Amino acid sequence: MSSVTRAEIFTSNNLVTYEFAGAFDYAPGGAMPFFLFGVGGVREGEETHFAAVLGIGKRIPLPGFLGSNALGFRYDIRDQIFSQVINNSDPFIVHNITATLGLQIYF
C-alpha cells in the first residue's frame, strides 16, 4: 500500500500583490481600449518577486452623472509577469492574470 503526502511549496498560503501602473487612453469614450503598463510585486508565502504589469481595458462613460462624462465604469485585464523558482529548479516565467472592475471619476 502506498501513501500520498501533501506537498507544500510555500510556508504559508498567503498571496499579496501590489502594483504601480499608468494607462494611456488614446480615445476616451471611443471604441479603442486603453493600454496599461507598470511594475509591481507578488508575495507568495515568504517569497517576494518583482513583476512587470501589462494590461488592456475600457472605460464606458456614464453621461448625465456629475456633469459631462466625468463618471465612468471601467474594466481591465492585467498580466503580472515574473520569474519563479520552485524547489531549486530552473527559473520559469509566471503569468498572474487579474481582472478589475470599478468606477472612475475624471476631475
Global Rg: 19 Å
What pattern of helices and strands is seen along the backbone? EEEEE
Roughly what is the average pLDDT, rounded to an integer?
Answer: 82
Instruction: Characterize the biggest β-sheet.
Output: 5 strands, antiparallel
**Strand sequence of the main sheet, in spatial order?**
1-2-3-4-5
Integer count of domains: 1
Spatial shape = elongated
Helical amount among residues, as a percent range?
A: under 10%
- Spatial separation of the terminal alpha carbons: 68 Å
| Class from helix and strand fractions | mainly beta
Structural overview:
The protein has 107 residues and is mainly beta. It has one domain. It has no helices and five strands. A five-stranded antiparallel beta sheet has the order 1-2-3-4-5, with no helix packed on it. Strand 4 and strand 5 form a beta hairpin. It is elongated, with a radius of gyration of 19 Å.
Secondary-structure blueprint of this entry?
Elements: E1 15-24, E2 34-44, E3 47-61, E4 71-84, E5 92-105
Antiparallel strand pairs: 1-2, 2-3, 3-4, 4-5
Summarize the structure.
This protein has 107 residues and is mostly beta strands. The protein is 0% helix and 60% strand. Strands 1-2-3-4-5 form a five-stranded antiparallel beta sheet, with no helix packed on it.
